[in-house]
Amino acid sequence: MSEPNGEIRRHPVLDRILHWMLVLAFFFTVASGFALFHPALFFLANLTGGGPWSALLHPFLGLAMMFFFFWFALRHWRDNQIGKRDIQWLKQFSDVMTHKEERLPEQDKYNAGQKMLYYILLLCMIGLLLTGIAVWRRYFSDYFPVGIVRWGLLLHAFAAFVLVASVFGHIAFAVWVKGSIRSMFRGTVTPGWAYKHHRAWFRKVIGEAQQTNASGFRNDVPAK
Ligand code: HEM
């Protein structure tokens, strides 16, 4: 877990590839979806080759986004299980916003806010996938009654709205917590970052590193 430069590995290379592919697919899916949603946003169709191309590509881009998301989410399932310390963290959300982290229970790899985002994104993606199939005229819509297709369109737009708003929040928090975005590029964080923001995870990682040390296999535990 600890790197030769004294940093701690947080995101293995596969997770980083999946995350940034997900971001790319999300960006083009949203651009083409917005272009189809309202004439005022039609200019966004230029990003995906104009009106007809946007309409054609949007469902396939959405499927690419699903593919990267579900793979990424599956790899993060265990780290997002809710525990007692998460409930306490949520109760003390005002301390989070005022940077009084010393008052909060120690956090594991992801904090309760990140875990909530994880489940909101998961629900949105499942909703978008199911409604997206029902409203995909070219292949599937004929199999559904018109009432279902109409409700499908409404729910599809609603799920997309919640997803986009949540991702904006996710980006804002990623920018707010210094060193976080860097970790999604480099894969590592400093011991100080881990100790400050995710102390329970830090203790676990350092504990594991010391155990391997004690058994004589490695000798590269970073100084605190
Ligand atoms: C420019 C856009 C984005 C930036 C800068 C960004 C940044 C990050 C960073 C820094 C992390 C790691 C946080 C940590 O180590 O504590 C992360 C994790 C994550 N990101 Fe993003 N992200 C972006 C877009 C997205 C999008 C579009 C999605 C999904 C639709 C997404 C879903 C996730 C998920 C599920 C995690 C793992 C959190 C968990 O498992 O609780 N991100 N992101």
Description:
The protein is mainly α and 224 residues long. It has one domain (8-83, 111-214): Fumarate Reductase Cytochrome B subunit (Up-down Bundle), CATH 1.20.950. The protein is 66% helix and 2% strand. It contains nine helices and two strands. It has helices spanning 13-37, 51-75, 84-91, 93-97, 112-134, 146-176, 180-186, 191-197, 199-214; strands at residues 8-9, 188-189. The chain has a two-stranded antiparallel ribbon with strand order 1-2. The longest helix is centred in the last third of the chain and has 31 residues, at 146-176. The chain is elongated, with a radius of gyration of 21 Å. Residues 215-224 have low confidence and may be disordered.
Task: Name some characteristics of this structure.
224 residues, Fumarate Reductase Cytochrome B subunit, elongated, disordered C terminus, binds protoporphyrin IX containing FE
Summarize the structure.
With 224 residues, the protein is mainly α. It contains 9 helices and 2 strands, in the order E-H-H-H-H-H-H-H-E-H-H.
CATH architecture: Up-down Bundle
Largest sheet: 2 strands, antiparallel
Which superfamily, in CATH terms, is the homologous superfamily?
Transmembrane di-heme cytochromes, Chain C
* Helicity, as a percent range: 55-70%
What is the distance, rounded to the nearest whole angstrom, between the alpha carbons of the first and last residues?
A: 14 Å
CATH topology (fold) name: Fumarate Reductase Cytochrome B subunit
**Which class in CATH terms?**
Mainly Alpha
Helix and strand run: EHHHHHHHEHH
Low-confidence blocks of residues: 215-224
- How would the global form be characterised? elongated
Strands ordered across the widest β-sheet: 1-2
The share of residues in extended strands comes to: under 5%
